[in-house]
Design brief:
The complex is a heterodimer of chains A (174) and B (133). Chain A is of the alpha+beta class. Chain A contains 6 helices and 4 strands. The model of chain B has no long low-confidence stretch (mean pLDDT 97). The chains are: A alpha+beta (174), B alpha+beta (133).
């Protein structure tokens, strides 16, 4: 049997190439390296692929540079809604949550859905109750607030209001 | 959107994806991230996939499951299957974005069809690689 492998991606939301500075690039690379190391540390010790992807994604969710967890973008209503999913290749078991706000690491709640319920996808109050039952850590609006995400929302809303065309594919991405 | 795929030393695969969605999205809009078979997929027999991009298109083309299906039914490699889905299925149909994937042998592929992609990967015994496009 060959060794372990790990790959991660960390979308920034609405960052245009023209706005990338050397300082920003260094910060993004640092964030990616930290997340990769978090996952690889699990695999290096003989841990499971599931534990490794959870560790890597938690590190990305904790880093405001990336659009998930603490760095989540805002909806048109000025709120944050987070979605997450895990899937285990051993038996195709899967868990997911959608439209939630509160748990610092939505990926842990997705895993709780997989491991603690007979279901695949939970939304709404019952999903948050499950997070409480699983002992997951919650953050408030201050924890999740990010000025650059808020500014991005204002700019996007202004563009919509003025009818400005937007050819940035990243604006349609997570 | 962020995500990870892994193969452990026992040959097991897993995928995880997490997102805040799109800036100024309609409240309640859900993309491909929490949809198994679309933005997140894992099956030891084929591959694990985590995607990021124009979520509605990734859902319509069941991106993750399609890669596995091409490997299973056409005998394509992970690289061939993932590239086909990203470049031939998604890209011509307004499906900008990309994905990370790993197969049962530990091979990794990171295809994308637009800018704004942030990637990092490692295989046991090799140095980590990080790239931003």
């Amino acid at each position: 049997m060959s060794g372990y492998s790990l790959a991660i991606h960390g979308g920034a939301g609405t960052i245009l190439k023209s706005k990338m500075t050397p300082e920003k690039e260094a910060a993004y690379r640092e964030g990616l390296s930290t997340a990769l190391e978090a996952g690889e540390a699990v695999l290096r010790k003989g841990g499971s692929a599931m534990d490794a992807v959870e560790a890597a994604v938690c590190a990305l969710e904790d880093e405001p540079l990336f659009n998930s967890g603490r760095g989540a973008v805002y909806t048109s209503a000025g709120a944050q809604e987070m979605d997450a999913c895990v899937m285990d290749g051993r038996d195709r078991s899967a868990g997911a949550v959608a439209g939630i706000f509160g748990p610092k690491n939505p990926i842990r709640l997705a895993r709780a859905v997989m491991e603690r319920t007979p279901h695949v996808l939970l939304i709404g109050p019952r999903a948050l109750e499950l997070a409480q039952e699983a002992g997951l850590e919650f953050g408030d609006r201050d924890y999740f607030f990010d000025q650059k995400r808020w500014d991005a929302l204002q700019k996007t809303m202004q563009m919509r209001e003025s009818g400005e065309e937007d050819d940035d594919p990243a604006r349609r991405h997570g | 959107t962020v995500g990870a795929v892994a193969r452990d030393r026992d040959g097991n695969l897993a995928a995880a994806t997490s997102t805040g969605g799109m800036t100024a999205k309609m409240p309640g809009r859900i993309g491909d991230t929490p949809i198994p078979g679309a933005g997140t997929f894992a099956d030891n027999a084929t591959c694990a996939v985590s995607a990021t991009g124009h979520g509605e298109v990734f859902i319509r083309y069941t991106a993750g499951a399609e890669i596995a299906a091409r490997m299973r039914h056409l005998g394509e490699t992970l690289e061939q299957a993932a590239r086909h889905v990203v470049m031939e299925d998604l890209a011509p149909n307004d499906g900008s974005g990309g994905l990370v994937a790993v197969d049962s042998e530990g091979n990794i592929t990171l295809p994308f069809n637009c800018e704004g992609m942030y990637r990092s990967s490692v295989r046991e015994g090799s140095d980590p690689e990080t790239a931003i496009y």
